[in-house]
Amino acid sequence: MRSIAVLLLLLAGLPSAAYGVDPASLEQHVRRNPCDYSARRDLVVAQAGSGDFAAAYYHAAWLAWLGPREYADSAEGIAFIRSRLNRDRSRLHATRSTATVTAAVQARRLLFDTCLNGAVAQQTTRLRRDISDLAERAEETAAAASRNDPVVRMALADLALTLDDVLVFEGRNSTKRSRVRTLRAAASRAEAAAAMVPEAPGPRRLLAVIRSRLAELDGIPDLWDLAIAEAEFARQIDPSDAYLSELLWTLHLRAGHWERAKVWQKRVEAAAEASGSE
């Protein structure tokens, strides 16, 4: 009995053990340390285990949209929020923040399912209408949520990017103005999230994609440079993200920076060879 008591005292002195079994302590910890991604991943597991799926869903979205690639692609990140079961469970006690997150995930799912069914060409108009409605309701919900919530800002940015995907499929010349307006709204939301959590790579990663789409639409060389700057910023924070290396290779090609593109091509190929030999 005495040995058990000693063990419990030792465990109490370890931060991970102390907050690992107590979602409330973990919640306080990540509020003080928002970029402790490992603790936030533990929090998703702890809250889901205790039945608080709305809170777990929120923190999973934090990892998916703001975290480094390692955490974004984990079971507690993108995979968690894409789960229909987790989404439905989170809705039982949804907050305004999680309602915005589920709207963004639902919009992405609508697009994915339509593409998977091979019906995107016939249903683009309906899809645009449905996702536009989701985006409008999410904006209204977000207006009543905390303006200092980076997850809400990223949810709105993701929603706008999904709508832009639909506009691309629609393919009419008249959609260029709509696309520019939609992408600028997405950039504004992602910029707000980046300002709130400057040490998180997710907003910068998303901004690189958004700015590259704007550059493609407007054909202004300086816009490619902005996209490159965002991707480089994200990679400084998350150097192990292979996607960012591939993105920088592509962006330099599109910008006409041939020598820089070759540098990134070699890095991507070397990383692929190293990965293949493991």
Number of DSSP strand runs? 0
Query: Radius of gyration in whole Å, from Cα?
Result: 21 Å
The biggest beta sheet is recorded as:
none
SSE series: HHHHHHHHHHHHHHHH
Can you describe what's shown?
By secondary structure, the chain is mostly helical. The chain contains 16 helices and no strands. It has helices at residues 2-12, 15-20, 23-32, 37-49, 53-66, 69-72, 78-82, 84-91, 96-116, 120-144, 150-170, 175-196, 201-218, 221-237, 242-255, 258-277. The chain is globular.
Layout: helices, strands, pairs:
Blueprint: H1 2-12, H2 15-20, H3 23-32, H4 37-49, H5 53-66, H6 69-72, H7 78-82, H8 84-91, H9 96-116, H10 120-144, H11 150-170, H12 175-196, H13 201-218, H14 221-237, H15 242-255, H16 258-277
Helix pairs in contact: 3-4, 4-5, 5-8, 5-11, 9-10, 9-11, 10-11, 11-12, 12-13, 13-14, 14-15, 15-16
What labels describe this entry?
mainly alpha, 82% helix
Short description:
This protein is an all-alpha fold and 278 residues long.
